[in-house]
Amino acid sequence: MTYAELAPSPRHLTPVRRPAPLRSARRALHRTAASIDARTPAHRDRAIDGLRALALLAVPAGHWLLGGFTLDAGGALHNASPLSALGFLAPLSWFLQLLGIFFLVGGYASVLSYRRTRERGGSTAGWLRGRVARLGRPVLGVTAVWALLIPLLAALGVPGDTLRTGSTLVIQPLWFVGVYTVITALTPLCVRAARRLGAWSAVPLLGTVAAVDLLRYGPYADAVPSWLSVLNILPGWMFAYQLGVCWGEKRLGRRGAWLLLLGGAALFAVLLLAFHYPASMVGVPGEVRTNSHPPSLLVLALAAAQSGAAILLRDRIGALLRRPALWAPVVVINLSAMTILCWHQTAMFAAAATGATSGEVAGLTTAPDSPAWIAARALWLPVFAVLLVAVGRYARRFEEPWGTGTRGARVRRAAAGVLAAGFAVFALGWA
Q1: Contact (Cβ atoms closer than 8 angstroms) between residue 339 and residue 138
Q2: Hey, where are the domains in the chain?
Q3: CA quadruple 21, 26, 31, 35: dihedral positive or negative?
Q4: Mean pLDDT by 10 residues, the chain (431 residues)
Q5: Engineering a disulfide at 82: which of 226, 368, 391, 405 sits with its beta carbon 3.0 to 4.6 angstroms away?
């Protein structure tokens, strides 16, 4: 059963009209949650879905909390980060950077899906096409829509720098989709490695990143070309995915999870305290070194600790999600996974661009350089969430199949591709 089959039917979403609207709404939500819970197959791994939902929510939470704006003299918006002035916020990024868990769960889910496809006689190519299509449709949708919005907003008088700021925000999270797609294509190789070596199959990936970091930051760093860091992209993000594949193949259990948790935490502390890695897990404007683009060894240490904790807590998470009130939001979040990823920056930008028309607005268009900004930004988070829900109501259709084989479907895909390419050129600053 797919997530679409778990979605509530319209009759469960319509509250019964009663004298107490709040009580009626609560009862309607309770019925909806109970319906979703009742329609969930008994074999559904709720813990895996819960971990994925947690990692998904961390993406907008991190961007909304650690991303800000400034206004120039012409009223244009520019990206800024509170981490530049408020370095004490860096530890917050350790808890909001949950891509390790996302890749871990991705590897686990992929190996199970791949195994089912092969057992049913399906081909690897067919399995991969389905996966890529589910990832690619929402990306084409958001980039095509933005390609149409840019000339419209420019005609309405929105400054060009503001449009470039918004475009950069939108394209930033999409790097993940490209990397995840490449790693997904390597799933058959990951499975073979897991079956032969078990969890040790992730060690060469860790070693590769460590070697590149040594060259980048070691005694001979001045003689190393800057492009060498690119070599960390694939092994850096594939590390947790490989652990997930091993977990799905039952080659990684609780003993290995404890080793990951304790070893990852120890390595994380050593890299911070002895080797002086940057404390922030996300890029900080003006800083020469960054942990995430491309991933450094510190990212893998954090991913190891997070993966170990997730495996150890799996049973407890699964038990908690037996409660309908907790399980229903997990289903909704997973149903809208790519919509959340692709459109959460648009929601924040929409609020900021609107606020910029009135000048400086605390927590929205003021410089993120004081504790007061943090308090003000916290008040804006519900607004961003409401805007994301409103946008997602229409944008979620991009997650659905666009139709195949018909002339209209081919034209739509071609048009979306052209628009997406045009938006990418603009966002990358080549326009």
Answers
A1: yes
A2: 49-427
A3: positive
A4: 49 50 81 90 92 95 93 92 90 92 96 93 91 88 91 93 92 86 95 96 97 91 87 96 97 96 98 94 82 92 97 96 95 93 95 93 94 95 96 87 66 74 70 44
A5: 368
Q: How many CA atoms lie within 13 A of 270 on its CB side?
A: 8
Six token digits for residue 52: 């994925």
Determine contact, residues 97/63, Cβ cutoff 8 Å: no
Alpha-helical regions (H) of 39-98: 46-66, 90-96
Preceding peptide of 60 cis, ω within 30°? no
CB of 274 closer than 8 Å to CB of 301: no
Cα separation, 211 vs 223, whole angstroms: 15
CA distances from 417 to 177, 178, 390, 411, 421 (A): 16, 15, 25, 10, 6
The backbone torsions φ and ψ at residue 79, rounded to the nearest 5 degrees and listed phi first, read -70, 145
Give pTM, 2 decimals.
0.89
Report yes or no: 391 and 347 within 8 Å, Cβ to Cβ: yes
Q: How far is CA 280 from the centre of its chain?
A: 17
Q: In the Cβ-directed half-sphere of 285, how many Cα atoms lie within 13 Å?
A: 15
Instruction: Compute φ and ψ for 293, nearest 5 degrees.
Output: -130, 85
Q: Angle CA(139)–CA(60)–CA(383) in degrees, nearest 5?
A: 110
Scored b (16 or more CB within 10 A) or e, 151-173 reads eebeeeebbeebbbbbbbbbbbb
Separation of alpha carbons 106 and 114, rounded Å: 12
